Structures are given as structure tokens and as C-alpha cells.
Amino acid sequence: MRPDVVTFWHGRLDALRQTCLRSQVAAGHKVTVYSFDPLPGLPDGVGNAEAEAILPHSFSERLRPPQPDGSWRDWTILQFSDFFRMRLMAERAGLWLDADVLLLKPVEIDPTKPYFAWERPRQLGNSVLYLPSDDGIVRAFAHLMEQDDLTPDWLALRHRLTFAFRQWRGRSNRLADIRVAIYGPAALTALAKREGELQHALPKQSFYAVHAEPKLFFEPTNFSALLADPAIIGLHISPKGRGGEKPIPGSLYAWATEKFGSR
Predict the structure, then answer these.
(1) Residue 43 to residue 9: CA distance in whole angstroms
(2) Which of 28, 81, 110, 151 has its CA 20 to 30 A from that of 128?
(3) Residue 235's closest CA among 104, 46, 43?
(4) pLDDT digits (tens, 9 = 90+) for 177-226
(5) Residue-wise burial string across 231-251, b where 16 or more C-beta atoms lie within 10 A, e elsewhere
(6) Would you say the C-alpha torsion 104, 125, 7, 86 has a positive or negative sign?
(7) How far apart are the first and last CA of the chain?
């Protein structure tokens, strides 16, 4: 089946994310972005839904206190979205795609099976994610969210030691402070291994061919092999702050902007 696509966004949508959302619509998916505030600049065909109904804004305070003006601090958005996508899975909302996933073709899933891909050797990515609502990974996150301290029972020994050391030195009593992706790809990988689901993982090339090398997307290069590779379904872009830059002629970004249009 071709699933609905869902994601979460907090803040302003830059030009890169707008292009990627258009590509998801162009691939034939119904696309919905959840947010706490209205999102100016959403491309045509992209819906906007209320995030509070999925995961309350107040949950962010369990990750870390906000700034004096109420805004979220440093890693809060990323970690909040790690929990948000699991709540969407529990709600049977659809396939999660990060807003910076450029789709080159439609995604087809078996709704009874997990859908994710290797991001790097021995680590799954969670930028592309589908889990049945009764999956053990979804249940594990639901159980975690019932705990005040948000300390997973799947936490790796090295992270347990790091956390214990930080507590001993009085630096932090929040697990969320030890690593930005503590609830993200590492957690998904550990739980998929525990649930015996790693065999469902797609090859890295399916979505993460340029993930670790943003220059392959933003800089002029011969990208014809990427477009011709039948194994590539989409490209997760890791913009490293370049999402608002004007596309450079001869780059894959310029090609994508031309193909999927602009506002």
C-alpha cells in the first residue's frame, strides 16, 4: 500500500524543506505536517494538523526546561520529534518522513511490517519510519513515556556510565542531556534488535545515500548515478544549516528545486 506521510515541524520552514515536502506530494502521497503553530509557506497539497492532539507541548519540559521566553532549547526539537513519531505510529497515522527527505519515487509498505533503513553500519535511521501500532518498539516507547525520568531499559552500557558520571559530578539529572540522539536512531536500532526486526531494514542506499555528505546535494557534482540508481527511493538530506541557501547551479539541490517547483 501507499501510505499517508506524516511529520512534525517546529519553527519556520526553509526552502529545502518546502522542496522536499513538494517531492513527497509529487510522489502521490497525502502529506500532513503536525505543528503547534500555523506554518506559513506550506506547499500546495500539504496539510497542517494540530500537534497537541498527538503529544502535548508540555512534554518538552520533561526533556529540559525552556528558555526564559518559553522557547525550546538546543536539542529539544530533535528529541521531542523522536517521541512524536512514535506517538504517530501508535495512532496509525502513516509513514513518518523527516521534512528533509526528498522522495524520488512513491513509498510502498506492508502495513503489518516495520519499514526503516540502515543509516550507517550497525545503526538504523529514523528519518524514514513506519511501525505497526502494536509493534514492540511502539510499546517500549509508550512504556518509557509513563516514566518521569525517561530512562530507557534498552540504554547501552556506555550511555548508562556516561549518565552516572554526569549525575555524580552534579552536571545533570536528565538523560536527555547526555546525547542529542539518545531517543533517536540508537534507540530504534537497539529496540529493533531486541524485537528481532533488523531483517526488515532496507539497505542504506534506499534513503541515506547522501545523508552523511551534504556536499553531494548542495555542491555542483555529477549526480546522474544517484538519479539512475533503482535502489534509491529517496534522499534524506542532512543540511547542516544550509537549508535556506540559494541552490547552486549544477547541484542536485538545483535539480530538485527545478523539478518540484517553488512557492
Answers:
(1) 14
(2) 151
(3) 104
(4) 777 788 999 999 999 999 999 999 999 999 999 988 999 999 999 999 99
(5) ebbbbbbbbeebbeeebeeeb
(6) positive
(7) 30
Give the mean pLDDT of the chain.
Answer: 92
Task: Determine the pLDDT at residue 136.
Answer: 98
Ramachandran category for residue 130: left, alpha or beta (phi over 0 → left; psi -120 to 50 → alpha): beta
> What's the pLDDT tens digit per position in 23-47?
999 999 999 999 999 999 899 999 9
Residue 192, Cβ density class (10 Å: 0-12 exposed, 13-18 middle, ≥19 buried): buried
Cell numbers that stand for 4 in this block: 499517508
Share of the chain above pLDDT 70, in %: 95
For residues 23 and 260, give the distance between their C-alpha atoms in angstroms, rounded to a whole number. 6
**All structural domains of the chain with their residue ranges:** 5-260
Q: How confident is the model at residue 170 (pLDDT cuts 50, 70, 90)?
A: low
The tally of CA atoms less than 13 A away on the side-chain side of residue 79 is 23
Question: What DSSP string runs through the chain?
Answer: ----EEEE--S---HHHHHHHHHHHHTT--EEEEESS--TTPPTTEEEEEGGGTS-GGGGGGT-PPPTTSPPPTTHHHHHHHHHHHHHHHTT--EEE-TTEEESS-----TTS-EEEEEETTEEEEEEEE--TT-HHHHHHHHHHTSSS---TT--HHHHHHHHHHHHTTS-S-GGGS-TTTTTHHHHHHHHHHTT-GGGPBPGGGT-SSTT-THHHHSB---HHHHH-TT--EEE---TT-TTSPPPTTBHHHHHHHHH---
* Local confidence band at 167 (pLDDT 50, 70, 90 cut-offs): low
